[in-house]
């Protein structure tokens, strides 16, 4: 993403590394294989959703109480089936969202990798992670503005369809017996499957064109690995900032706030707050005439169909009197509109967490064990607390939304929990906004040119670890000032801690 300010405010002079000192970057073949397997599974899964949605039977325009997936009448709305326990009903819906999250996360990863290297071929790749919708590529059709917008629309449609495809309800029969029902909406399931197929096709096309042209250099998204790949492939040229020594007592030289590096990510915090506020306004008592909500009394109409009465003169029976096409598309439309804001919010929050993880990987240079370029991206995501929290929150939030929001009303309890989840994510985004690391290392936040400039020794193989620190004095000095060298080394004993009160340069 373009930014007028450079993360490391130095004067640059060009220099080159010795070829023998380069450490071969990781191609990420294991990650590539996992992504390919999940892509194939996504194709099969979304194709199944699309096909099955056309065979969910209906009876007289209402849901039937059957599990048979056989061709029904012309009106194909969906099915409903009974479960033994409420836990089983809720567990089925949660499992569905977990599967959807895994599939869409993998598709997003593939699309992000193809876009990253398309931007790199254009020599416009600044950061290791970028907002995909707002950074189209001009040389790749699968990563152009049209494909990116279509991707966002299909992602909204996929999540919106998933939110209304499965939902659970507990009703009380005439003999005061609780019955747990799971509804499957055919239109929502079909929209989820069709949009997922489109996402899979775009991801597969980006994969194929990137691999065929040799554009994709690595599937490992570690910032050091990406920077080294760009350097070795002559995408980024190193410039050593040794003409302008700086004093280590100036702590501001080592501090760069996260969102000053990625300005458009600031929108995530007010978005989270707005979403939590909107959801909280849906939580009311049954005496509030200005809200839709459930009452505790079931209604049995003359045909024996049982429904839930909604205040403000809106009942399920009223919805059934609407035209068939309105009945079929209303849940999907409602889900897409409601989920679009949360989907974009989660995407931006994932983006912030990715930037923070990039900086954490970079700061391993001053850790005891040093930094390695060959870490698996999945392992990085699992050991990152922020990434783990956001990853777990997304399917849970989508599931709570489906359990608490219907086109005919709102269930207060899941919404209370959902608002709590959104507030927690708001705090996470707020902390990420103000989070920075102090230390001996200038911040980069995934800025690839800065990483290439600051790393002067990529190691000579071995375990593939490098360290950052003081590399000794500069013999000739600098305009009468005692100046020391700082940089990286593949030998831990070759560097020591940066000394305060000293002037340092990179060579």
Automatic annotation (TrEMBL):
Transmembrane spans: 33-56, 94-118, 139-162, 182-208, 413-432
UniProtKB keywords: Membrane, Transmembrane, Transmembrane helix
Name assigned to this protein: Uncharacterized protein
Classification of source organism: Eukaryota, Fungi, Dikarya, Ascomycota, Pezizomycotina
């Amino acid at each position: 993403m373009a930014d007028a300010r450079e993360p490391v405010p130095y004067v640059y002079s060009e220099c080159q590394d010795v070829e023998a000192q380069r450490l071969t970057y990781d191609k990420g073949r294991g990650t590539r294989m996992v992504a390919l397997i999940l892509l194939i599974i996504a194709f099969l899964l979304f194709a199944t959703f699309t096909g099955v949605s056309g065979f969910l039977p209906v009876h007289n325009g209402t849901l039937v109480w059957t599990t048979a997936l056989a061709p029904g009448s012309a009106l194909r709305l969906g099915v409903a089936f009974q479960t033994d326990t409420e836990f089983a009903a809720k567990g089925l819906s949660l499992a569905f969202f977990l599967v959807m999250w895994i599939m869409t996360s993998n598709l997003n990863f593939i699309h992000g990798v193809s876009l990253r290297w398309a931007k790199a071929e254009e020599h416009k790749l600044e950061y290791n992670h970028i907002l995909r919708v707002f950074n189209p590529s001009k040389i790749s059709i699968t990563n152009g503005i049209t494909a990116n917008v279509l991707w966002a629309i299909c992602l909204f449609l996929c999540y919106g369809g998933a939110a209304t495809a499965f939902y659970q309800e507990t009703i009380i029969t005439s003999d005061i017996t609780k019955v747990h029902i799971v509804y499957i909406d055919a239109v929502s399931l079909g929209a989820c499957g069709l949009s997922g197929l489109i996402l899979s096709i775009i991801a597969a096309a980006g994969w194929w064109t990137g691999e065929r042209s040799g554009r994709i250099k690595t599937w490992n998204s570690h910032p050091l690995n990406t920077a080294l790949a760009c350097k070795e492939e002559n995408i980024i040229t190193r410039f050593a900032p040794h003409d302008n020594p700086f004093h280590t007592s100036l702590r501001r030289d080592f501090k760069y706030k996260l969102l000053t590096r990625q300005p458009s990510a600031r929108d995530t915090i007010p978005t989270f707050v707005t979403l939590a506020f909107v959801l909280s306004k849906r939580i009311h008592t049954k005496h509030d005439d200005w809200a839709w909500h459930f009452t505790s009394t079931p209604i049995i109409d003359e045909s024996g169909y049982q429904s839930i009465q909604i205040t403000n003169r809106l009942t399920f029976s009223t919805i059934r009197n609407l035209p068939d096409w309105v009945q079929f598309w209303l849940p999907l439309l409602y889900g897409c509109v409601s989920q679009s804001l949360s989907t974009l919010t989660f995407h931006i929050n994932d983006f912030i967490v990715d930037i923070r993880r990039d900086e954490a990987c970079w700061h391993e240079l001053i850790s005891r064990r040093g930094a390695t370029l060959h870490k698996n991206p999945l392992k990085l995501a699992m050991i990152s607390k922020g990434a783990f929290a956001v990853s777990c929150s997304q399917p849970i939030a989508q599931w709570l939304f489906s359990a608490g929001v219907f086109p005919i009303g709102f269930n207060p309890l899941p919404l209370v929990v959902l608002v709590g989840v959104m507030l927690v994510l708001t705090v996470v985004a707020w902390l990420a906004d103000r989070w920075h690391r102090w230390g001996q290392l200038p911040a980069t936040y995934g800025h690839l040119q800065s990483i290439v400039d600051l790393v002067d020794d990529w190691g000579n193989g071995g375990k593939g670890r490098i360290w950052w620190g003081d590399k000794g004095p500069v013999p000739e000095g600098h305009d009468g000032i005692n100046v020391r060298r700082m940089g990286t080394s593949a030998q831990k004993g070759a560097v020591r801690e940066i000394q305060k009160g000293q002037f340092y340069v990179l060579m």
